[in-house]
Structure to design on (224 residues):
């Protein structure tokens, strides 16, 4: 599995865009980039995934660099309920979801 | 769909007792996973099933842990005998297919405390 590097913590003002970076320089060609988040005391929640192209859904946007060595998750208008630990997970198969330490995002009022 | 359902939400037991955690995956999902989360080790994959068959149990910490999936709608994780170091939050997750492009759905977890 590809190794990932994420900042341990970030703050964001409510209503502003939150941009969470992830470095996955060893990602292989068949590995998707998944993002999950875990709100305190809850199970991880799937957010979005991508392979090569940028992706957007109702929760977030995912920007993947052309060389696929890094990606950025964008929460366009962060709310207090977006405070959570965000995990970036390159994976090519179901059994290879390895959760690292993630980024603790704190949305400030 | 009600999502992945786990029970109980909280379990407190004495060391040496048997503990059984339960999970109902999302209907139609072919894969089921058991994870454990602690402050020290984060989220760890314990075992996963495909079409009710255990595929990889290399994450199961020791023989005191066992998991079964008797049918597509039910799985159990059993610890016998339990020890204080087993205290953790245990999550069950399911996914429709293993290939890239599908997201897991996790349950709310069972918080186990062994005293």
């Amino acid at each position: 599995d590809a190794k990932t590097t994420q900042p341990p913590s970030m703050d964001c003002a409510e209503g502003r865009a939150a941009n969470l970076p992830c470095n996955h320089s060893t990602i292989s060609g068949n590995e998707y980039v998944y993002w999950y988040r875990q709100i305190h005391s809850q199970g991880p929640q799937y957010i979005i995934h991508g392979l090569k192209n940028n992706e957007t859904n109702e929760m977030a946007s995912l920007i993947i660099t052309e060389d696929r060595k890094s990606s950025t998750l964008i929460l366009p208008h962060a709310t207090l309920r977006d405070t959570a630990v965000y995990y970036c997970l390159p994976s090519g198969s179901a059994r290879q979801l390895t959760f690292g330490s993630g980024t603790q995002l704190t949305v400030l009022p | 769909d009600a999502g992945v359902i786990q029970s109980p939400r909280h379990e407190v037991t004495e060391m040496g007792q048997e503990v059984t955690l339960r999970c109902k995956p999302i209907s139609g999902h072919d894969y089921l996973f058991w994870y454990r989360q602690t402050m020290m080790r984060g989220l760890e994959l314990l075992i996963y099933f495909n079409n009710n068959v255990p595929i990889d149990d290399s994450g199961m910490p020791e023989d005191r842990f066992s998991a079964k999936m008797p049918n597509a709608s039910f799985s159990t994780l059993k610890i016998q005998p339990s020890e204080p170091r087993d205290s953790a939050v245990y999550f069950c997750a399911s996914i429709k297919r293993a290939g890239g492009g599908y997201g897991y759905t996790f349950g709310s977890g069972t918080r186990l405390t062994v005293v």
User: Anything to note?
Assistant: The two ends of chain A are 37 Å apart (CA to CA).
